[in-house]
Every structure is written in structure tokens, then in C-alpha cells.
From TrEMBL:
It holds the Pfam family LRR_4. Coiled coil: none annotated. PANTHER family: LEUCINE-RICH REPEAT-CONTAINING PROTEIN 2, PTHR48051. It comes from Probosciger aterrimus (Palm cockatoo). GO terms for cellular component: cytoplasm. This is LRRC2 protein. InterPro entries: Leu-rich_rpt, Leu-rich_rpt_4, Leu-rich_rpt_typical-subtyp, LRR_dom_sf, LRR_domain-containing. The lineage of its organism: Eukaryota, Metazoa, Chordata, Craniata, Vertebrata. Keywords: Leucine-rich repeat, Repeat.
Amino acid sequence: MGHQVIIFDFSLIRGLWETRVKKNKERQRKEKERLERSSLEKIKQEWNFILECRKKGIPQSKYLKNGFVDTDKRILDTYGKAPQLQKKRALPDEANKERNKFIFHLSGEQWMEFPDSLKEQIYLKEWHVYNTLIQTIPAYIALFKDLRVLELSKNQINHLPVEIGCLKNLRVLNVSFNHLKSVPPELGDCENLEKLDLSGNMEITELPFEV
């Protein structure tokens, strides 16, 4: 019985092997690129998240855990709303504080006349004076060109000065429950007056034609 000789075509085997190697390398290359893209995207997301946290004033200890960035959106929601609420609460306080700079308040029976310092505050826009023993409105009221509200109820005021006609921006005048006997015609010069309250002044029987 003779020997059977098996002949291999090594060039064919080599070609198959090289093809497999190339395919494997191609798969590795694509996987590497995918991982790199994934890694870069993650880094980008983490960096944007860090920037957002810094912008909202979130401390680093809240979004870093064991050296890794925790991109949990609830962190932004929790810390993002608090400053806004604080800001919303702060704004009315600041607005009220600013508004109060232009408002004069005075009350109590210890007051029989307006304080001398009042004449230096001609920037005021409102006077609120009530329950005092003040009888006279000073003539320097004519200097208060920006005055819009003049609330003088429940005092002892016995007349309105003619200078009140200089208050071109006056919108509200309340002199109820005082001791007025008449109203000066000059009040008609307050061209922006929208509300006039003279109630409780029993001796006023009629208003001037100008009013």
C-alpha cells in the first residue's frame, strides 16, 4: 500500500490568515474609535455639567464623588431653584427699601408741627401723616414737585395753604377728619389730582368752582 501525500497550498492559507488578521484589526480599530468617541462625549458632558454647577454656585463636594463627576440632573434641579427663590424674595425687599426712601411717615399726638428736617427732603413722593395735633401745612410744601400722595387724615389741620396748587403731580389728597372750613381755589391747579377726600370736615359746605 503506498503512502498518500497531502499537499497544502500555503499561499492560500496565508491569504486566508491575512484576511482574518485584517478583519480583526479593522474591528479593533473601529472599537477603539467608538470608545474614544464615547469617552470624549462623556468628558464633554461632564465638563458642561461642571460649568453649569459652577454657574449655579453648587459646591464641588456635591457633584464630585470619589474623584468622579456625578452628572445627576437632580443636583441642578435642587440647587438651581433655591437661588432663584431667594432672589425672588430679595427683590421685593430691595424694591420696598428703595420705595421707602421716597415716603414720609409721621403719627402720634406728640407731634404739633412738622419736623424741620422735612424741608430738606423735597425728593419725597408721598406724605403719610395721621393722628397728630398738627394744625398747619407749611408753605414749603410747594417745593415738593414730585409729591404724588398726600395722606393727612385725622389731624387738626384747619386750612390748606395756597401753595398746594404748586403740586402739579399730586394724584391723591386725603385730608379727611380734620378741621377744614374751606378749600383754596388753587387746589384746582393740581391738574393730575385723581382722588380727593374731604370727609369728616363738617364746616366745609361747598367747593370752589376751580375744584
